[in-house]
């Protein structure tokens, strides 16, 4: 009689990594003890593990997100490390997925593998979710007989890169939020508050202060032409989006521009270095030759400046130059990153040093994002204070002048 598959439950956990930094996440397993054991393998000390409560909207189709792929990879790695056969691992993993679209994708991959395709070939049939790097690493794992180890590396890579992307989005969204809040507050004041004062001023019969008159003119312009301004903004947004989608030159120009922005540019710079180190460490540790691994790095760079640098480094390395000198000659990598790669090459532990480079710059990005968040809070208050205070002063100036005359 066949053994009944173990039912998996989703657990939410909190803990601390090797550096003592707080972290959290979700994991599917059959018990809390197994969750804690798996976290210990990842170098995380669990402080809290509990079953995840029911959530709304997860049972529907839903768009498959990169974190869904990361979770699927982690589950497959865990199942295969436990000695579960590949096809059965698909069944167990699919049984624990709540998102229907993701469950269907796992089912399709399983059917393709069951019909004779390799795991890597099955994944290549779904390029929207599994990129060339992912498929190449799975193929290397199948060929070397260490698929569970490679899946574990891929899972770690996906989790780290998605966490890094989330931090970048957080850093980019905060300034945008400040601007949006400032615009909304200003428009409300100009449309609702200033007209009330304008009616009062009409009875004064005296010339208004220049500052007050400017604010009233702006208020009238907003009320009369708001639909035109909104239309221009919508059309401009559409044209910019279309241009970026269709023009590689525009995308490349934007990539170069964002790296020059204050604060944000430095965050993106360090995140690109971290992604370079993480991708190269993952592929090189999987047994991929360095020259071929640099191809994967160029594809996963996320910025044309670092993609072009990776291609140039590949050319230099293929002619016999050491990686450290090729990185240094590119002129975009920090001295610390180059030095750590130099130590890795000399000691024969390049993959470990590249991983340390990735960890170091990921922590740098994390700290800078936290610092930016703390910095933006008083900036928000200052901007709103200046806007609201300026409008209030503009409205009360005539009243103050009238009081001084009386």
What do these coordinates show?
It comes from Endozoicomonas elysicola. One of its GO terms (cellular component) is plasma membrane. Pfam families: T2SSF. With about 400 residues, the protein is mainly alpha-helical. Among the domains are: about 10-50; about 65-160, Receptor-associated Protein, CATH 1.20.81; about 265-365, Up-down Bundle (Receptor-associated Protein), CATH 1.20.81.30. The chain has helices spanning about 30-40, 65-80, 85-95, 100-115, 120-125, 130-145, 145-200, 210-245, 250-260, 265-285, 290-300, 305-320, 325-330, 335-345, 350-405; strands at about 10-15, 20-30, 45-50. Strand 1 (about 10-15) and strand 2 form a beta hairpin. Residues about 1-5 and about 55-60 have low confidence and may be disordered.
What tags apply to this protein structure?
406 residues, disordered N terminus, Receptor-associated Protein, three-stranded antiparallel beta sheet, 3 strands, mainly alpha
């Amino acid at each position: 009689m066949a053994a009944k598959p173990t039912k998996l439950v989703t657990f939410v956990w909190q803990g601390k990594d090797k550096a003592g930094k707080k972290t959290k996440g979700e994991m599917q397993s059959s018990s809390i003890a197994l969750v804690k054991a798996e976290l210990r393998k990842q170098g995380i000390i669990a402080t809290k593990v509990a079953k995840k409560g029911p959530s709304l909207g997860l049972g529907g189709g839903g768009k498959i997100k990169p974190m869904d792929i990361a979770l699927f990879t982690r589950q497959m790695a865990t199942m295969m490390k436990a000695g579960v056969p590949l096809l059965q691992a698909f069944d167990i993993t699919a049984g624990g997925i709540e998102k229907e679209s993701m469950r269907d994708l796992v089912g399709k991959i399983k059917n393709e593998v069951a019909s004779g395709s390799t795991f890597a070939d099955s994944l290549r049939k779904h390029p929207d979710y599994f990129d060339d790097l992912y498929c190449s690493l799975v193929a290397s794992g199948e060929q070397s007989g260490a698929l569970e180890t490679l899946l574990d590396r891929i899972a770690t890579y996906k989790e780290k890169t998605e966490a890094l992307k989330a931090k970048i989005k957080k850093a980019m969204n905060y300034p945008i939020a400040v601007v949006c809040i400032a615009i909304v507050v200003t428009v409300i004041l100009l449309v609702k508050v200033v007209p009330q004062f304008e009616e009062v001023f009409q009875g004064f019969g005296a010339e208004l202060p220049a500052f007050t008159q400017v604010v009233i003119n702006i208020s009238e312009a907003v009320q009369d032409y708001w639909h035109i301004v909104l239309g221009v903004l919508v059309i401009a947004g559409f044209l910019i989006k279309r241009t970026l989608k269709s023009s590689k030159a525009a995308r490349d120009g934007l990539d170069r521009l964002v790296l020059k922005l204050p604060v944000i540019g430095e965050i993106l710079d360090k995140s690109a270095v971290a992604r370079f180190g993480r991708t190269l460490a993952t592929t090189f540790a999987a047994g991929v030759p360095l020259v071929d691994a640099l191809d994967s790095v160029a594809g996963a760079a996320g910025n044309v400046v670092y993609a072009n640098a990776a291609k140039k480094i590949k050319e230099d390395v293929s002619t016999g130059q050491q990686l450290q000198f090729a990185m240094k000659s590119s002129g975009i990598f920090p001295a610390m990153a180059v030095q750590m790669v130099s130590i890795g090459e000399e000691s024969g532990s390049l993959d470990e040093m590249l991983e340390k480079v990735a960890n170091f710059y990921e922590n740098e990005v994390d700290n800078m994002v936290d610092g930016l968040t703390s910095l933006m809070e008083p900036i928000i208050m200052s901007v709103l204070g200046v806007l609201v205070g300026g409008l209030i002063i503009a409205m009360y100036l005539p009243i103050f002048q009238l009081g001084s005359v009386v």
